[in-house]
Amino acid sequence: MKNLFLLLAFVFGFTTLSQAQNDGNKLTLSTEATPKMAIEKKSHDFGTIEEGVQATVTFTFKNTGNAPLVLNSVKASCGCTTPKWTKEPVAPGAEGTITAIYNSKGRPGNFTKTITVKHNGEGGTEFLTIRGVVNKAAPVVKPTVVAP
């Protein structure tokens, strides 16, 4: 019986020691180089704009990680919004931009559009939103010509 208790104590001690060593490895992994994207604001409201206006907003982000941040793709939810972004890797501590241009021509009414940003940083994907209201343009009145 005494041998059984000694054996159980040995197995328990070995398991505890093994677990403690694994926890130490987890701490080492957290110090690996990882880019992190911190965006100042993730949405923008244009308010009311006139039809035909190209509304533009620039979102600024910072790499708060310890490795270069690369934007792999930036896509708008529809063809009426054109994104432009920093193409080169953003160094740790540096800033980059994503510009969204909304073409309101022929699109009166409320709008909400999403820009999906895929990157190599922590989380891997960010979503930006633009919204507003487009006032319908006044109809163009063609002059009538009266023949004499």
Structure commentary:
With 148 residues, the chain is α+β, with helices and mostly antiparallel strands. The protein has a domain at 37-135: Immunoglobulin-like, CATH 2.60.40. The protein is 19% helix and 43% strand. It has one helix and eight strands. It has one helix at residues 2-29; strands at 37-39, 43-50, 54-63, 71-76, 81-85, 95-103, 109-119, 125-135. A four-stranded antiparallel β-sheet has the order 1-3-6-5, with no helix packed on it. A hairpin with a 5-residue loop joins β7 (109-119) and β8 (125-135). 15% of the residues are buried. Mean pLDDT is 85; it is low at 20-29.
Short précis:
By secondary structure, the chain is α+β, with helices and mostly antiparallel strands. It has one helix at about 1-30; strands at about 35-40, 45-50, 55-65, 70-75, 80-85, 95-105, 110-120, 125-135. The protein is elongated and about 120 Å long.
Feature tags:
single chain; 148 residues; alpha+beta; Immunoglobulin-like; four-stranded mixed sheet; 1 helix; 8 strands; 43% strand; elongated
**Lateral strand order in the biggest sheet:** 1-3-6-5
Largest sheet: 4 strands, antiparallel
Annotated CATH homologous superfamily of the domain at 37-135: Immunoglobulins
State Rg.
28 Å
**CATH top level assignment of the domain at 37-135:** Mainly Beta
Secondary structure class reads alpha+beta
Number of strands: 8
Please, how many helices? 1
Report how far the terminal alpha carbons are from each other. 125 Å
Give the overall shape: elongated
Q: What is the mean predicted local confidence, pLDDT?
A: 85
Q: What would you say the CATH architecture of the domain at 37-135 is? A: Sandwich
Uncertain stretches of 5 or more adjacent residues: 20-29
* Residues in β-strands, percent: 35-45%
CATH topology of the domain at 37-135: Immunoglobulin-like
Helix content: 10-25%
Oligomerization state of this entry?
single chain
